[in-house]
């Protein structure tokens, strides 16, 4: 029975799974969207969302805490260029978002083995979806002396 076993093992041993998720996360940070299977996309979403939250928190805390968050993220990603990109470009873009940094879009089935495919992307970097929503207008109220 699988009671209380929430992690999807993806048919791999622990070290292989962690390495694969780290590589996929680095690719997602670099390219802002990747195509993969639905199961891997869901596992990647659980893997990368806490890392993005840690990168976002660096801007609001002291330098010592920011260095600690950077080391935690580096421990998971193992790629200093991806960490730099995450803490500079991505964290600035998602600074006002309270969570839900990634989006999974199902693409259909792969021709070779009929696997369910999906595209996972960083939400704030897709101009097509974000273009439909108008920006909030700040209304000016003039003070009339009277």
What does this structure look like?
The chain has 146 residues and is of the alpha+beta class. The protein is 49% helix and 14% strand. The chain has five helices and three strands, in the order H-E-H-H-H-E-E-H. It has helices at 14-31, 38-57, 63-77, 80-93, 127-131, and strands at residues 33-37, 102-109, 116-122. It has a three-stranded antiparallel sheet with strand order 1-3-2. Helix 1 (14-31) crosses helix 2 (38-57), helix 2 runs antiparallel to helix 3 (63-77) and helix 2 crosses helix 4 (80-93). It is globular and about 75 Å long.
User: Which regions have little confidence, pLDDT < 50, spanning 5+ residues?
Assistant: none
Structural class determined from secondary elements: alpha+beta
β content, as a range?
Answer: 5-15%
Radius of gyration: 19 Å
What's the overall average pLDDT, rounded? Answer: 90
Largest sheet: 3 strands, antiparallel
Order of helices and strands: HEHHHEEH
Total strands: the figure is 3
> Could you estimate the helical fraction of the residues in percent?
40-55%
Question: What shape does the CA trace take?
Answer: globular
**Ends distance:** 76 Å
Q: How many helix segments?
A: 5
Secondary structure elements and their pairing?
Blueprint: H1 14-31, E1 33-37, H2 38-57, H3 63-77, H4 80-93, E2 102-109, E3 116-122, H5 127-131
Antiparallel strand pairs: 1-3, 2-3
Helix pairs in contact: 1-2, 1-4, 2-3, 2-4, 3-4
